[in-house]
Amino acid sequence: xxxxxxxxxxxxxxxxxxxxxxxxxxxxxxxxxxxxxxxxxxxxxxxxxxxxxxxxxxxxxxxxxxxxxxxxxxxxxxxxxxxxxxxxxxxxxxxxxxxxxxxxxxxxxxxxxxxxxxxxxxxxxxxxxxxxxxxxx
Length: 137
Prior knowledge:
Blueprint: H1 6-19, H2 27-47, H3 49-56, H4 58-66, H5 69-89, H6 94-110, H7 112-124, H8 126-135
Helix pairs in contact: 1-2, 2-6, 3-4, 4-7, 5-6
């Protein structure tokens, strides 16, 4: 999760929206969103990664999942826009949180590209790693 950078970006986004008086959330709410993000990441990697890699192969899966990142970042202005509209009308932020949940699910799916990249890199150096372990270094 630390590879994609959104775990550092999401609290700043929510705080900036609070400065604009559009989407103010307490630290506990932001923590819940980040926790949900972690659960989504683990869940998607366990449920989706093996079949996607088997069907698409590592390289095609990496390219496909990397193509999701522009979609992921398109959710941020949508959340900001909905927050402004809902705040102006006096409604709650339920729509913003619904979009954030979808954002976190899509982000977690796109995040699997890094797992495929790491797995491919480790497979490339498997013999070297085995010889280092065998030599006791």
